[in-house]
Input
Amino acid sequence: MTVAAAPVVVDRAGLDALVSELVSQGRTVVGPTVRDGAVVLAELASAGELPFGWGVELEAGRYRLVRREDGAAFAHSAGPQSWKNWLHPQRERLWSADRTPDGGVRYTEEDPQAPSYAFLGVRPCDLRAIAIQDRVLTGGRFADSGYGARRERALLIAAECTEPGATCFCVSAGGGPAADAGYDLALTELTGDGGHRFLLRAGSEEGERLLERVPHRPADPATESGARAAVDAARDRMGRSLPPVDLRELLVADPDAERWNDVAERCLTCGNCTMVCPTCFCTTTEEVTDLTGDHSERWQRWDSCFDLDFSGLHGGPVRASGRSRYRQWLTHKLSTWYDQFGSSGCVGCGRCIVWCPVGIDLTEEAAALDEERRSRSGRDEER
Output
C-alpha cells in the first residue's frame, strides 16, 4: 500500500541506525559492498560495509572500480548480480525421495522457511525488474511458490539513481532514474553543500513504521530540491539508448536480417547475458541420487536459451546455431515478452552489455536492425 508521508532526512549515523534496526528485526540485509574488484550484492552486518567512496567505470565488456572523492555509497551502476539471485536463486531443492525398508518410496516436499530479506539500495531499474518477475513467477497457472514466499517477506529500500553509467539506458526502456512505485522506502543520496545526507520517503506502511524507529529530521526545501535536481539530471545523462521505434514489430519483422549473421560471428553463446539479466527467469530441473540409489533429490536451477539443450527435443536442439539462439534471446526480451506478460522484458540496466565477454551491445544490435530495415525499405522504394 502506497503512503503519502512527508519525506525526511537522515545522515550517516541515521543510515547506520536503519541497518541496525533491520538486523534487530531478524531480517537478512542484502546490499552493495566492494568484493573481488567489483561492487557486488552481499549480506550486510552494518552500513559500514556499503561501498562508500567507490564508483565504477563501465563500457561494453568492461567493468572497473574507481575511487570517488565525495564518499558516496550509492553512486555506482548495476553490478554483476541482481536481486534475482536471492528471490529466484540459482539452485533450489524441490523435493527428495527415500526408499523405505518395505520397498516403497517416501517423498518429502521441500518447504523451507522463507528468509525475511531487506534489500538495501535497489535501483529503479531493478524495482521494475522485480515487478516483471512478480508477474512471471507469481501470476498465471504455474506460480513458483518458493519465489512467492521469499518475495512476500522482502522489504525493498530503493536508491534513486544520480550517477548513470555509460551502459545505462533505462529511460529509453520505459523507466527512469526515479523510484516511482514498488518500494517500502526510497532514498536519494546527496553530498556536497549541506553535507552527506539521504532524503528518505516511505512507500508503504511498513516503510513508514521503519522510519519512525530511525533518527531523522524533517526534509528541508534545499535537500528536497537538490534531490529532485540530481535525479532529473541523471535522466539526461544515460550512456545508451534503444532506437525510438516499435521494437515489438522490429524484432519479429525479419528473422533473416543480415545483422543476425554479424552478431553470430561474435557471440560465444556463453549465456552471461541471461545470468546477469534481472528478468531472465528460465529454469530446468535435474535429479541427483546418492551412490546407494536409496536417496534422490530434484533440484531446480537456472537455465539459458543459449544452452543447446534448452530447446532439445528427441531429434536434437531446435535452435542449433548461435545465430538462432541470440535471435531468440533478443527477440523474446524486446518483443514477444509482451505477448506473454504484457511488457518488455528489458529494464535498461545495461548488465548484459558490461558482462558480455566480447562486448555485444543490445542497444547497438537493435539500432543496426532498424538501420538495415530502413536501408532495405529505401532500396525497395527506388525499384
Residues 8-235 form one domain. The two ends are 59 Å apart (CA to CA).
